[in-house]
Specification:
The chain has 313 residues and is of the alpha/beta class. The chain contains 10 helices and 11 strands.
Length: 313
């Protein structure tokens, strides 16, 4: 399977006619039909119903069409971005992030970064914390915002803050009858939903380690892939879920309580390649300092007080 075959299939699917698609592609009809046939043989399923007029897609064909459109669109974006960089029109900065950081200061940081560096083409890539380390070393991203500490000498990790942890509980749970911080021991016997299921180590391991350190004996642990799924299952009364406190805004059909322990925290960590002297990395660090100096409401609401020594605690 190659991009040419994807383009051929998309053209036929759009035109619903082999003749018109061949004219649009500036090729003869027989080689067009042959390439579609080879594509179907490789996939092992029929994509088109040829004996209908106009040509129709099968269920598999409709799914393949949507996926092909996304792939071709991404290729066009890649080509355009590469040309811009090659012509020195724009610089590209790829930023990895874990989903939970979107509920803290990351959106504000991205807005400030665009204002400070309008020439920058910012690419956002959702990656788990451990995946960011490999992506940095391989050059697939330039900077990452994660939650798991590491000891890789090739990647510098700066702890920006320690974010308090909260617990999401079903609205009908006895734990939902109060708004004050929850003594962590009250999670004893609860069915816990953790995320991400993989790769590990991850935020899930931080949560389990924190609860274990407080002597909490859980009833059962259910592992899921992402925070949205985890909190959705809380709403469906499958259990409780420990989350970063900034993520308490993500759903309104569950009840949230901070955990009453200064040791119940999760770090927000900025990672970049060691000895990377990019001006944009320094700019991001500067913008983070400016944001923290402004004391936004979310900073005081979700995080422990920052240490005074060093650039970042």
């Amino acid at each position: 399977m190659d991009l040419r075959q994807l383009r051929y299939f998309v053209a036929v699917a759009r035109e619903r006619n082999f003749t018109r698609a061949a004219e649009q592609l500036h090729i003869a009809q027989p080689p067009l039909s042959r390439q579609i046939q080879l594509l179907e043989e490789e996939l092992g399923v029929a994509l088109l119903i040829r004996n209908s007029r106009p040509v129709q897609m099968t269920d598999a064909g409709r799914l393949f069409y949507e996926q092909a459109m996304q792939i071709l669109g991404r290729v066009e974006q890649m080509q355009a971005a590469t040309r811009r960089v090659g012509l020195h029109q724009r610089s590209v900065l790829s930023i990895g992030f874990v989903a939970s950081t979107l509920y803290g200061g990351l959106p504000t940081l991205m807005r400030k970064l665009r204002e400070a560096a309008p020439e920058l083409d910012i690419q956002m890539v959702e990656l788990m914390s451990v995946q960011q380390i490999e992506a940095l070393k391989e050059g697939r991203i330039d900077i990452g915002f994660g939650r798991v500490r590491h000891s890789d000498p090739n990647v510098t990790g700066i702890v920006l803050r320690e974010e308090r942890l909260a617990v999401a509980v079903p609205i009908g749970s006895p734990l939902a009858r109060a708004d004050i911080p929850l003594p962590i021991e009250q999670l004893n016997g609860q069915k816990l939903i953790v995320y991400p299921k993989e790769p590990r180590p991850s935020f899930a391991d931080q949560v389990l380690s924190t609860l274990n350190g407080h002597g909490v004996q859980l009833g059962e642990v259910l592992e899921v892939r992402e925070i949205q799924t985890a909190v959705g299952l809380v709403a469906a009364e499958f259990g409780v879920c420990v989350i970063p406190s900034s993520a308490r805004q993500m759903r309104q059909d569950v009840h949230y309580r901070l955990l009453d322990s200064e040791r119940a925290t999760s770090p927000v960590i900025l990672n970049h390649r060691t000895n990377d002297t990019s001006k944009y990395i320094e700019l991001i660090k500067q913008l983070i300092d400016e944001i923290y100096a402004e004391r936004p409401a979310w900073l005081d609401a979700h995080n422990l007080p920052r240490a005074r020594k060093g650039r970042h605690p």
